[in-house]
Amino acid sequence: MRIAVIGGTGKEGYGLALGWARAGQEVVIGSRVMERAVRAAETINAAVGRGRAVGMLNREAAATGEIVVLAVPYDAHESTLRDIREEVRGKVLVDVTVPVDPERPRHLRTPPGGSATEEAQALLGSGVRVVAAFQNISYAHLDQVEASACDVLVCGDDADARQEAIKLARFLGFRGLDAGPVRNARVIEGLTILLMGINRRYKAKGAGIQITGIPEQ
Ligand SMILES: NC(=O)c1ccc[n+]([C@@H]2O[C@H](COP(=O)([O-])OP(=O)(O)OC[C@H]3O[C@@H](n4cnc5c(N)ncnc54)[C@H](OP(=O)(O)O)[C@@H]3O)[C@@H](O)[C@H]2O)c1
Predict the structure, then answer these.
(1) The pTM is what?
(2) Rg of the chain on CA atoms, in Å
(3) Looking at ligand 1, which atom is closest to the CA of residue 192?
(4) Is any ligand 1 atom within 6 A of the Cβ of residue 34?
(5) Is 182 buried (19+), middle (13-18) or exposed (0-12) by CB count in 10 A?
(6) How far is the CA of 183 from the centre of ligand 1 (A)?
(7) Rounded CA separation 196/155 (Å)
(8) How far apart are CA 217 and CA 215, in angstroms?
(9) Is residue 73 lining ligand 1, measured as CB closer than 6 Å?
(10) Which residues contact 43 (CB under 8 A, 6 or more apart)?
C-alpha cells in the first residue's frame, strides 16, 4: 500500500510513517517544504535499510498516496485540507488531528463542526471517505519496534474505510477497533486530552487505552 502522510515531518506523522515503512509499506512524506520532506524520508530509509519512503510537497504527496493520512496541528487543519482537497478525491483520508487549544494545551478546543474529523468530512464532501484514527496513540509509542498494547479506535461513516484504517493500525502492531460513525470522533479526540492529563499526573509519555470485554480480534 502507498500511504501518504501529510504532516509527515512532525512527531506523530513521522512516527506513523516510520512504522509503516518498517512494515514494508511504501510511504510518502508530505510537507510544506520539500527539503524537510526529503530529509524525513531519507531518515526513514536509513532506519529501515530500504528505500520505502519518498518526500514530496503536501499536495503532490496527497496525489501520490493511495490512502492519505493527515497529522497536522488543528490550527493548520482547515487550510491543509483546502490545499489537498482535489488530490484526495475518491480516496480514504485518515484524520489524526486533535483540536488542542493552542492557548490552553491541556484543553480541548471544541470545534464548531463537532470534531476535527467531522469538519474534515464536511469540508471534503461525500467524494472522500474520512475516518478518525490514531488520536489516542502517543508518538512516544511509534519509534518502538515492538508495538504497545494500546487500541486504535477508528470511526467514520463508511464501513469499508474504517476497515482500511484498521489495516493501517495492524501494520503497526496495534489492534484497530471499529468505533462506528464519524460523530464518535468527538469522544476519540476528547480522550486524547484526558490521556495527556494522565501522562502529566503519572509522569508518563504514552498513556493509551485498551477496550476490554469484546471477543478477540
Ligand atoms: N504528538 C502526539 O503524540 C500526537 C498523538 C496523537 C495525535 N496527535 C495529533 O496529530 C497532529 C500532529 O501532531 P504533532 O505532534 O506531530 O504536531 P507537530 O509536530 O507540531 O506538527 C506536525 C506537522 O504539521 C506541519 N505544520 C505545522 N504547523 C503548520 C501550519 N501552520 N500549517 C501547515 N502545516 C503545519 C509541519 O510540517 P511541515 O512544516 O513540514 O509542513 C509539522 O511537522 C496534531 O493534531 C496532534 O494533536 C499528536
Answers:
(1) 0.97
(2) 16
(3) 6
(4) no
(5) buried
(6) 22
(7) 21
(8) 6
(9) yes
(10) none
